[in-house]
Design brief:
It contains 19 helices and 19 strands. The chain is an alpha+beta fold. A 3-stranded mixed β-sheet has the order 7-10-13, with no helix packed on it. α7 (about 165-185) packs antiparallel against α8. It starts with a helix and ends in a 5-residue tail after the last helix. The model has no long low-confidence stretch (mean pLDDT about 95).
Length: about 600
């Protein structure tokens, strides 16, 4: 059981730490580096501010965690079979995690080694300083597919404990693996693979067959949800009070009840694994806002606020285009912090009001700064406004910034990953601690996207489950409101009919990708989506953002240089340097271009 527990624990070293999170978001059409970013973020943006190399790419956070866990999984599988009294269901958890890690690795690096020193998929107990990479088809057909098929057969429908893996999550990952491998076989834009090999399946199947399998497995999971289901509203999916809800299939868990079991300080986060501090990255320094010369928005352990690091920011295109509909669609409101409210009273300042925009008073809980849904030519910006170069509009007590005015230093924060604590006791709580929330890894809703994408790629569909019908399940839910998150007021409105009506009659891959970004913005998986569909260059080669200083509200268009070799991350230099192989062998081990 210790080995299985370690497998769940290893998730905390991948999901929640900010540097691996960063490489799945920064450099895509979702985000760029922010004002306080270092080269961990600038390098991956590919916009000339840094350079992505084997020593700077933070894909080492995956490589260094996945292989020890894979070896542990192999040890559990082998030894359990020898003992003979360990249940197939427990062994299946190890099989799931071995496939899970290999799936992450093959998407990130291309082919990776199946032999860790004792033979392919064998438990290794000896020091091995050499390594041979398998090809992409070998990793899928020898490791990922067989392990997940066995896991689906042997795992229970309901987890043995809260948060343990089930048939449903195994089906999701098998469907995602089939989908990704089908795209790899098809290779529409001639992206190179490594190690070099023919894009043929060892089992003689073609891309169409795998797209069909992805559709069939995902729809089977939708039809057999066991204890899982979609939440009634999008707001409820990511609400801190609703963590570990029935839509979440897998998460890296944390707790505020115990530092031991949280594996992180409950008062001050270190900014390193296994801390869950990804949410800090897209949190700008809102504490610099001034009203009556006072910091009117204090650092607080609350989902809209938390610890500001200003390392990543959304692009203007995200706010204006991805989330163009902010009226019918609840997902902008359920993703971002667009209103920052006064909380100076929780810091001991007993002032009943502070003077804010236009010399008007604001009470605690009132709006201090609002990011508007639409641009307004009447906004008057000044460098000194609110101490952050904000704008004002006549008759409004809140400072304002329009969508075209967001910058690398002031921008809507990422609410969905925000901190949540129950021990604030009416004060500011522990905002410097890492988040004690679970980091969500897989959601039931993803099954609808996998099936829809496979359908667009030609899979034969079931009645009622065309690509448009599947996506409309998600869009209909997005149209249902029960709470105006940034308005801080109840809002019971059903815009599902309008959302469905706005869906194109024929949807394509770009539409699915746009819908996926609305649903999963900032959750860490965007790079995988763009690489899988080979749309990274098309959708993310340029972006707009304003500058890195307060008061800069003129958008600049930035160009990224995304080469075909970037579709694979470099093998970390720590791996190359640690191998006892010739210079030529080490060079051949590295992905081309790095």
């Amino acid at each position: 059981m210790g080995g299985l527990t370690a497998m769940y624990s290893h998730l905390r070293y991948i999901y929640g730490p900010a540097y691996y999170y960063n490489i799945g978001v920064t450099g895509t059409d979702e985000a760029t580096y922010a004002q306080s970013a270092d080269n961990n973020f600038k390098d991956v943006d590919l916009s000339g501010a840094g350079s992505l190399t084997p020593s700077s790419s933070r894909s080492d956070a995956l490589w260094g965690q996945a292989f020890p866990n894979i070896n542990t999984a192999s040890g559990i599988i082998e030894n359990a079979e020898v003992v003979g009294t360990i249940s197939d269901a427990l062994i299946a958890e190890a099989r799931f995690f071995r496939a899970f890690d290999y799936f992450l690795l093959v998407q990130t690096f291309g082919g990776v080694p199946l032999d860790l020193g004792a033979g392919e998929l064998k438990f290794n107990t000896s020091t091995s300083r050499t390594s041979v990479r398998n090809t992409v088809p070998e990793v899928y057909t020898k490791a990922i597919f067989p392990d997940l098929l066995k896991a689906i057969n042997d795992l229970p429908e309901v987890g043995r404990l809260t948060g343990t893996v089930t048939k449903t999550v195994a089906r999701l990952y098998l469907a995602k693996a089939y989908l990704t491998y089908a795209w790899w076989l098809e290779n529409p834009n001639n992206i190179p693979t490594y190690p070099a090999c023919d894009r043929t399946d060892p089992n003689g199947k073609n891309a169409a067959w795998y797209f069909q399998q992805a559709y069939d497995v995902s729809t089977t999971a939708i039809e057999n949800p066991a204890s899982f289901a979609l939440q009634a509203t999008y707001y409820d999916v990511n609400l801190g009070q609703n963590d570990r809800n029935k839509e979440i299939l897998l998460y890296a868990d944390h707790t505020e009840k115990s530092e031991k079991y949280n594996a992180s300080s409950l008062t001050y986060g270190s900014g390193s694994a296994p801390d869950n501090f990804a949410g800090w990255m897209m949190t700008w320094n809102y504490t610099n806002i001034r009203s009556s010369g006072v910091s009117s928005v204090q650092r607080e352990a609350e989902q809209h606020l938390g610890r500001p690091w200003t390392r990543m920011c959304p692009t203007i295109g995200v706010i204006k285009n991805t989330f163009a509909d902010k009226t019918n669609d609840s997902r902008y409101d359920g993703t971002f912090v667009s209103v920052y409210r006064g909380n100076w009273d929780k810091a001991g300042n007993k002032s009943a009001t502070l003077i804010n925009a236009n010399g008007m008073p604001v009470a605690p809980g009132g709006a201090i700064l609002t990011f508007l849904n639409e641009d307004d030519a009447s906004i008057v910006y000044a460098n000194s406004t609110a101490n952050i170069g904000a704008g004002v509009l006549p008759g409004r007590a809140d400072f304002v910034i329009g969508p075209s005015g967001i910058s690398r230093i002031v921008y809507p924060g990422l609410w969905k990953l925000g901190t949540y604590r129950t021990d604030n006791a009416g004060g500011l709580g522990q905002p410097n601690a890492a988040s004690t929330r679970p980091f969500n890894i897989a959601k039931f809703s993803e099954l609808y996207f996998v099936a829809a994408e496979a359908a667009v790629k030609g899979a034969t569909v079931k009645s009622g489950k065309s690509a448009r019908e599947l996506i409309n399940v998600i869009r209909a839910r997005a149209g249902k409101w029960r709470w105006d998150n940034n308005g801080n007021v109840a809002k019971v409105v059903d815009n599902s009919a309008a959302m469905i009506a706005a869906t194109p009659e024929t949807i394509d891959i770009n539409y699915i990708l746009a819908e996926s970004s609305r649903e999963y913005y900032g959750e860490g998986n965007r790079w995988f989506d763009l690489v899988r569909t080979q749309k990274w260059n098309e959708l993310a080669s340029t972006y707009q953002i304003c500058g890195s200083s307060y008061g800069q509200h003129t958008p600049a268009t930035i160009t990224r240089t995304i080469e075909k070799y970037h579709y694979l991350r470099p093998i970390p230099s720590s791996q190359i340097d640690g191998m006892e192989m010739t210079t030529e062998e080490k060079a051949a081990y590295q992905n081309p271009g790095y």
